Amino acid sequence: MKRIYVNEKWCLGCHLCEYECAFAATGLSDMAKALKGKRIAPKIRVEDCGDIHFAVNCRHCKDALCVKSCISGALSKGEDGVVRIDRDKCVGCLTCVLVCPYGAIMPAPDGHAAQKCQLCTDNTCGVPNCVAHCPNNAIVFEER
Amino acid sequence: MDMYIQPEYEVVRREDRCIACRVCERQCANLVHSFDPETGKMQADDSKCVNCHRCVCLCPTHALKIVKSDDTYRQNANWDGQTINEVYKQANAGGVLLSSMGNPKPFPVFWDKMLVNASQVTNPPIDPLREPMETQLYLGKRTVKIERDERGRIKNTLPPQLKLSAPIMFSAMSYGSISYNAHEALARAAEELGIYYNTGEGGLHKDFYKYGKNTIVQVASGRFGVFKDYLETAAAIEIKMGQGAKPGIGGHLPGAKISADVSETRMIPEGVDAISPAPHHDIYSIEDLRQLVYSLKEATEYKKPVIVKIAAVHNVAAIASGIARSGADIIAIDGYRGGTGAAPTRIRDNVGIPVELALAEVDARLREEGIRDEVSIVVGGSVRSSADVVKAIALGADACYIGTAALLALGCHLCRTCHEGKCNWGIATQRPDLVKRLNPDIGYKRLVNLVTAWNHEIQEMMGGMGINSVEALRGNRLMLRGIGLTDTELRILGIKYAGESL
Amino acid sequence: MLLKEGQFRNPSGCAVTGVIDRSGKSMSGEGMIEAISVMHDRSNGLGGGFAGYGIYPHYKDFYAFHLFYDGNTARADTEKFLTRHFEIVYSSEIQTRKIPSVKDEPLIFRYFLAPLPQKLANSHLDEREYVARCVNRVNAGIEGAYVFSCGKDMGIFKGVGYPEDIGRFYRLEEYEGYAWTCHGRYPTNTPGWWGGAHPFGLLDFSVVHNGEISSYDANRRYIEMFGYKCTLQTDTEVITYIIDYLVRKQGLSLEETAHVIAASFWRTIREKEEETREQETLLRRMFPSLLVTGPFSIILGFTGGLMALNDRLKLRSVVCAEKGDKCYIASEESAIRRIEPDLDRVFSPAGGEPVIFKLYDQQGGRA
């Protein structure tokens, strides 16, 4: 399946992907209107350490620990390979947050459920918005 | 900062659009932008801004623009703001002013004063979408005496030539003045396009030997990075006698740009200014040049063409005539608008002549002397578009070198501060965090796109003229007409005025 | 005042035709007049001309000079020059016939010449080069004199008017030759100068051309490096010089010359078998500035044959035909049919593909 991959060599640590991710989730057409004055809660996070930068988001693991550990059946792996979360089923136990080895699942800003990258299949972007707007092709969406 | 000098540009931020994502702050190597946690707002220090537009391009909400400051000195047609500031700078620092890229002064651009012909009625235009339209050519000597083998076939007695798929090459830009990634992008693009890039006088990084067949290596007055493998790897060797941006002086690479890698490639100490001598100290006259040409040919077994690059100066035609008789295969002429990574401002802005006039003079002189076939002519020094290429070829050039246009394709915004080594676009810098901003995967593709697009446009214009090979355009000055030119300029360019018929 | 040919560039459309009897049998110029008259509409009365080969059998070892003179001063100056450089074997005014539509004719003279041996030896030149340079000196240096034909055993006859009228003016029915070419001109300007009509000749080469080449200035500026002066500023002139340079000075064959002038496209060359590919690539790399682009169809006349050649895109028509020993070339098939309705073979050569018809006796001798 096509996944999002991040190439550390080209990641500049500009954090644009985080804003593009948050923007994609709003469904709005103007980023200033969507994000002005808001704290963003992106599903992709850039980790910085000195000159090293690396954007992290869900790997959509083949044998996903989060899916296995979910006590309410909210997390599932679709036929397309995408690991999705059903907010209505999620009870907010955050077990998935604990077991994810990549730190790619996090509590949603409302605190009632977890959130994760669903490759922009849950919005109208078409291709993952972080990929579309990475200025240095550090984030790619491809089959490997 | 000098208290006398006020910021040239102001950063204008639309508060209603800024979401304080801090991308501008992270991307500015000049440290213009900062985040004020107390107000939660971004702020800017205009005095540090060089107007490179990196922040403007990356701002996701288009909240930024850079404007020319309207702060002004008392109006004075003689002493403009720039001139006054330069006096202040020198009074403060006591040094030679440094600048980068090409001459920005408002001198006439002769490309823009020439118009191209098109065919109709008596001669059909040719449609490049439907008919072959050839931009392939060979560079090098064409002087031959026909010799035949025992079966009567013509023997290949031609000296080595360079085959180009389009009349465009990337001009000399050294590793050191530009980054590893910029070099990689140029090398890969040249390979994919079937053209050549030029190492400049910075040597050839060991990783790029694999692009040798599309590489022209330079031998300049500093001889940086020149050794056997370097010469042997290349497709052609260029002797740099002069550079359009700074005729009369050698290259200058600030120590800050001499990283470990650059130092190894150039074979010079790390962190120390690399200043090439003004002349080649083994070339004080034309007969010395001939010796270097033949030394290089001897060293490479006469398998590679030798290019001699000169700056366009007042007696360029006589110099070119000498070079054409020196054994060189190609003359590269660099006009006074040519770019540079660092040059003394006064030289960049006041020395040399336009390449259009130099080319016209050189081509005419070589033909008068009957030695045009001894050399191909390549011109650079501000070839800005495919139209400039077409006009250059019609004036008599075989091909063009593009430097600035190639850098623009890689993201350069012509802020002209290459010499500071903090290029926000990852081009004219050796700082690893900045270098990585230029991903050669993107860069090479953009260069390929640029040259491909120009090539299409060249074909369109050639087709319009009813010419289906770039060879039949070369020196075809009847295809040009001047506009807004004096009689002297027309005479030098060897063209008629617009409206004068055939 | 109207400018003379050469003082401006004058592109023109045209009709061309040619015929050769490969067995060397002679025919009069009448056939050519017939053929060209069919293509009347391709000319506009501003130029017509003929070249005949094998027409001076009694003087075949001498250079036949045809000259236009504006007046007797030019003639006297020229004859003085000719006497200094040549032995004049025979000279006379060319016999013409009054035709109402042919006006303002200059004085037209013919000389049979042999270079003075001592002069020739002192010049250190090949005989043909010596003759060519003398022609240049008359044309460039003597006001009002113009040599328009200077080959051996061949002659050019041309003037301002429709070609069929020019043919009758020169009484071409009285000349007999093994090959003829003819040209009717449609210039887009009105020079009214006889020297500007075609064929254009240099030694025994004569060229008739229909087209307007787009490479003109590239070709001109290149060929002028080798001592040629394109004083007439016509396509035909530059093409003739190119052929002369490649064939006479560089020693290329006519086929090789065609592969320079109307070179195959690189992509076509790539697909050819190895030996041809190598040779054609070499020719293009050696003489790139002699590639001629834009529409043209030319007929080259030379001692012993004719060559037809189209530009590489075939932007001008040219048709070839054979009937027994005779071969025909014309802009339009109708011109050929007019003089030989029953043909063995009619074909249209591809762009850039030379068609060469030679006497069976390659030396150009008569059967």
What can you see in these coordinates?
- The complex is a heterotrimer of chains A (144), B (502) and C (367).
- Chain A has helices at residues 16-26, 31-35, 65-69, 95-99, 129-133, and strands at residues 2-6, 45-49, 52-56, 75-77, 83-85, 105-107, 114-116, 139-143.
- Chain A is of the alpha+beta class.
- Chain A has two domains: 1-57 and 120-144, Alpha-Beta Plaits (2-Layer Sandwich), CATH 3.30.70; 60-116, Alpha-Beta Plaits.
- In chain A, the strands form four sheets. In chain A, strands 1-8 form a two-stranded antiparallel sheet. Chain A has a two-stranded antiparallel sheet with strand order 2-3.
- The radius of gyration of chain A is 15 Å and the shape is globular.
- The termini of chain A are close together.
- Chain B has helices at 23-27, 54-58, 81-93, 180-193, 228-233, 260-266, 286-299, 316-324, 345-350, 355-368, 386-395, 404-409, 432-435, 440-465, 487-493, and strands at residues 9-13, 33-36, 41-44, 64-68, 98-99, 114-116, 137-139, 162-164, 168-170, 197-198, 215-219, 236-240, 252-253, 274-275, 306-311, 330-334, 343-344, 376-380, 399-402, 480-482, 496-497.
- In chain B, helix 8 links the parallel strand 15 and strand 16 (330-334).
- The radius of gyration of chain B is 24 Å and the shape is globular.
- The N and C termini of chain B lie far apart (60 Å).
- The model of chain B has no long low-confidence stretch (mean pLDDT 96).
- Chain C has one domain (16-212, 299-358): Aminohydrolase, N-terminal nucleophile (Ntn) domain (Glutamine Phosphoribosylpyrophosphate, subunit 1, domain 1, 4-Layer Sandwich), CATH 3.60.20.10.
- The longest helix of chain C is centred in the middle third of the chain and has 15 residues, at 127-141.
- Chain C contains eleven helices and 18 strands.
- In chain C, the strands form four sheets. Chain C has a seven-stranded antiparallel β-sheet with strand order 8-3-10-1-16-15-17, covered by helices on one side. Chain C has a five-stranded antiparallel β-sheet with strand order 11-12-13-14-18, covered by helices on one side. In chain C, strands 5-6-4-7 form a four-stranded antiparallel β-sheet.
- Chain C has helices at residues 30-38, 72-85, 117-123, 127-141, 163-169, 216-223, 235-249, 254-261, 266-270, 274-286, 333-339, and strands at residues 12-21, 27-28, 48-53, 63-69, 86-93, 107-115, 145-149, 154-159, 176-177, 179-187, 200-202, 205-211, 296-302, 305-310, 319-323, 326-330, 345-347, 355-358.
- Chain C is globular.
- The chains are: A alpha+beta (144), B alpha/beta (502), C alpha+beta (367).
- Chain A binds chain B through residues 9-10, 12-16, 18-20, 23, 30-32, 35-38, 51, 133, 135-138, and chain B through 16-19, 21-23, 26-27, 57-58, 60-61, 63, 432-433, 436-437, 439, 441-442.
